[in-house]
Task: structure prediction
Amino acid sequence: MSDIVKILPIEVSNKIAAGEVVQRPSSVLKELLENSLDANSSKIKVIIKNAGKNLIQVIDDGDGMSIKDMHSSFIKHATSKINSIDDVFSISSMGFRGEALAAISSVSMIEMTSSKNLENEGYFIEMVGGKIINEKELSLDKGTSIKVKNIFFNVPARRNFLKSDFVELRHIMNVFHNIAVSNHEIEFSLINNEEEIFYLKKESLKKRIISVFGEKIREHLIPIKENTQIANLNGFILKPEFAKKSRSNQFIFVNNRPIKSQFINHSISSSFDGLLRDGYYPGYFLFINMDPVKIDVNVHPNKTEIKFDDDQSLYSIINSAVKHCLGIYQISPVLDFEKDSSMDISYNQINTDPKIPSIEVDSEFNPFKIFNEEDFIKKDSNLELSDSLSYANEDNKLSSKIFQIFNKYIVSTSKSSLIIINQNLAHQRILYEDFLKSIFESSSESQKLVFPIEITLTKSQLILFKKITTDFDSLGFVYDLSNTLLSISSVPSQLINNSIEEIIEDILDDENIFDKSKNLSYSDFFAKKLSKSSSIKTGQSLNSNEQEFLVNQLFSCKEPNLSPDNKQIFITLNKNDIENRF
Ligand code: ADP
Ligand code: MG
Result:
């Protein structure tokens, strides 16, 4: 039996940037899963308790470790994966820094068992805060199991800094999604608080994406494939209709390593130009394979950032590949919702001779007779009447002369100034105060839907949904949940004309939900979220009644100046401001 874990020379370890590996339970999960992948596992089981705060366990059937390797694995910069700094620049394993287990074990309680399957010889080590408190021989099947319990038990400041279970669980799911999608040939299961959330058999990439994200993603997957000298691309781009308000469907892998890259996101998004509504992000599972010598993974301890030797070429390759694949897909008549119909020439016009345009003169036209006099007088007196009515008393009372410009602003006047109101922000403020009131006074009015709305949640949306059900109730949602099918029979009355499915997905996909550090309460978060998604949008034309209603409602709000996100809702121009412009 050969021992393979060795300590890197200090000069090598110094070259590897220092930093923190463990930020939260999901970073532990990521490191443990990466170790199982590097150990050639074919089956990996994940067990989570309390969003990983109490337990993160990863069990694999991989190569396993010898007793000596198990001991060495907890020493800083002990790794079996590289020998010299040169290896860092041609890395093919997920790990190489040899610091994850050392870091994790110093802030948690660990139980590790492992066997290399030499006659089921196995070993057990129990550690608290980096110190071994118990060890013994055991008879075990090949593979390794690591339990990480009570993360940050000895660093109370860090433990308190952990977010709500909802947030931590979202991070955990995100790590799991990334690893499960990029390793479709490996069997995975995920158990959260005794409940099996995922059991994923070995399957094709497409099937794996569907198993993880649910059946409804199937029809939105457009394959992408492009081989160039710099990089090979493959994977799937999601159809523009499947774009979301969050970036939760954006997955990039370089040599199968999940990474984050703004320039790649940008390159893909710009290929979608004109195909997405404002504020929506495209979805993709993009696998980039390239010579490891041309990239540097050792930018950050968490190994999710990569430096590319030639990022400009990569940018254009990705950009054109995505355009190409969207182009092919658009040939099929299903989509093209943004196509400019004026570009179409109908077939019966193609074979007819063009008509010569003629000039028509109206000989009766009198340029000085714009209005007929009676009309003019009538209009003018109307004007005076409405003016004197609205300007009569208070200075700031809004006049009835309200109009909309650019389908975006409502313009109104008072005696001393001109007010320009952003319709979207104004409506957000109105709804926000309305929602808060319903939540706090439990006075939410629900409206029964004629046809219940059925939404199939993905499995991870489902476990997140279960965390927020009480808030849903207090808002006035009435629903039934069976398996992943959510049937909503009543909704808060403010939401009646909105896409409920979109609103709920928007909430479940939001990365900022209930961020304690920002002093947000669930209720406030919900009220903001709902008011944003159900507000009148920019671009929506409003009739005069609607305009008036909006203005009146805004000025009866407690805080009419600022939107829920603290943006200015309206500007006022007084006489001086205007005169100064001349
Ligand atoms: P790195 O992965 O960067 O080498 P780690 O601290 O994550 O550093 O792990 C240290 C060593 O422990 C690894 O190099 C590997 O040899 C061993 N190891 C950790 N987890 C496993 C596992 N699940 N199966 C087999 N060996 C493992
Ligand atoms: Mg590792």
